[in-house]
Design brief:
It is a single chain. By secondary structure, the protein is α+β, with helices and mostly antiparallel strands. The chain has a domain at 39-70. Helix content is 28%, strand content 10%. The chain contains two helices and two strands. It has helices at 40-55, 61-67, and strands spanning 17-20, 34-37.
Length: 83
């Protein structure tokens, strides 16, 4: 079983923000669409997780076989808070 314990506090996933891309000389009206994005704080948290997992050498074949399984991945997430 693949597992990892992250040594930092969890950050809840915020609702994504959205913005409408306007048409201009570089993109025509057909390419106008809505882009969704997350705040920088949440993106920094995700980058911190990825960096930690890479530094620990945990992005191995077992990790990729779990997340790419055609039946989906079952995941248990435990958070430990310092009291």
């Amino acid at each position: 079983m693949w597992s990892v314990t992250l040594p930092f506090q969890p950050v809840s996933a915020p609702r994504p923000s959205a913005r409408r891309n306007v048409s201009d000389a570089t993109n025509d009206v057909a390419e106008k669409r809505i882009s969704t994005y997350y705040d920088k704080k949440y993106l920094d948290y995700l980058k911190k997780i990825k960096s930690f997992i890479e530094d620990q050498g945990l992005l191995d074949d077992e990790f990729y076989s779990i997340v790419n399984d055609p039946m989906g991945a079952i995941m248990e997430v435990d958070f430990y808070y310092q009291i």
